């Protein structure tokens, strides 16, 4: 049972990762992302997820620096994730991209580094680079984002170190049941991006009924559904009241019937690109 905002899941390598964090996809660099990161940390969040392609790593780093100064929390209490972009895949280019991200963030190490998308012919070499970074201690855990089962099998076949995380689009209309089963069987933790389907769930009648029953918002119900399914989540917001609301998930529990009803909403419907058919 996940009882508080800073509860952690133990990854396959023994590293502890918060179940709950802040995602900053499409958050503008500069003061907006600085303030978002500070608001999240001020309200108990301990995990921040960014990526090179988001072009806001500098602001995230500044937000972390200011939050540490203002709250007195230690860097070691935070869990910071970034990702290598498609154009930088390959062994040497991934190593170089990692150092660039670290510099922009102003950090000495990352807690998690991910391959952002499974670009065919390149991601195995990038995985070898992530293994090197892991062995040197520059990153505490390594994994991927948007990898399907067949991509994961190719990595695993060539891997010296097993992936610890797969971050994928996951929400009630795309519940990724088969992929989650495969990840569990291989001790790879699943993490959801777009856990709220980028706001497209807020008119759903089933979710509205469940939310009214618990006197919670639809967002809170969906985020609670993720947690009770054993999914790490990183909802995005730039507004402090929404950051607070998204984190208010630990004073209620969805029933088995609630969970079944939400599970039944699956339509295999994506809001993001299909990892088997993307062009960027």
Question: Can you summarize this structure?
Answer:
The protein is an alpha/beta fold and 280 residues long. The protein has helices at residues 31-42, 57-71, 91-105, 123-136, 149-158, 177-185, 205-214, 218-228, 240-246, 256-263; strands at 8-10, 16-18, 22-23, 47-49, 79-84, 110-115, 139-145, 165-169, 189-193, 232-233.
Total domain units: 1
Estimated share of beta-strand residues? 15-25%
Task: Give the strand order of the largest sheet, numbering strands 1, 2, ... along the chain.
Answer: 3-4-5-6-7-8-9-10
* CATH T-level topology: TIM Barrel
Mean pLDDT: 97
At the fourth level of CATH, the homologous superfamily is NADP-dependent oxidoreductase domain
**In whole angstroms, how far apart are the ends?**
39 Å
Please tally the β strands and state the result: 10
Task: Write the element-wise H/E pattern from the N-terminal end onward.
Answer: EEEHEHEHEHEHEHEHHEHH
The portion of residues assigned to helices is 25-40%
Number of helices: 10
Based on CA atoms alone, the radius of gyration comes out at 18 Å
The poorly predicted ranges are none
Describe the sheet with the most strands.
8 strands, parallel
């Amino acid at each position: 049972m996940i009882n508080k905002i800073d509860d952690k899941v133990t990854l396959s390598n023994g590293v502890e990762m918060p179940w709950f964090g802040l995602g900053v996809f499409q958050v503008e660099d500069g003061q907006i992302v600085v303030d978002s990161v500070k608001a999240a940390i001020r309200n108990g969040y301990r995990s921040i997820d960014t990526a090179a392609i988001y072009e806001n790593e500098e602001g995230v780093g500044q937000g972390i620096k200011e939050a540490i100064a203002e709250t007195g929390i230690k860097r070691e209490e935070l869990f910071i994730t970034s990702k290598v972009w498609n154009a930088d895949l390959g062994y040497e280019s991934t190593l170089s991209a990692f150092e660039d991200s670290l510099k922009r963030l102003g950090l000495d190490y990352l807690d998690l580094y991910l391959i952002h998308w499974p670009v065919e012919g390149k991601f195995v070499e990038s995985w070898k680079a992530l293994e090197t970074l892991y062995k040197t201690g520059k990153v505490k855990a390594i994994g991927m984002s948007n990898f399907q089962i067949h991509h994961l099998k190719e990595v695993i076949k060539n891997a010296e170190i097993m992936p610890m995380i797969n971050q994928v689009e996951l929400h009630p209309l795309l519940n990724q049941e088969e992929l989650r089963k495969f990840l569990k069987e291989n001790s790879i933790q699943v993490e959801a991006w777009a856990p709220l389907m980028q706001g497209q769930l807020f008119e759903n009648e089933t979710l509205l009924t469940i939310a009214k029953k618990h006197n919670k918002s639809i967002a809170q119900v969906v985020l609670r559904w993720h947690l009770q399914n054993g999914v790490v989540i990183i909802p995005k917001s730039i507004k402090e009241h929404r950051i607070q609301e998204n984190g208010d998930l630990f004073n209620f529990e969805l029933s088995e019937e609630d969970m079944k009803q939400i599970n039944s909403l699956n339509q295999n419907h994506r809001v993001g690109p299909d990892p088997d058919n993307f062009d960027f």
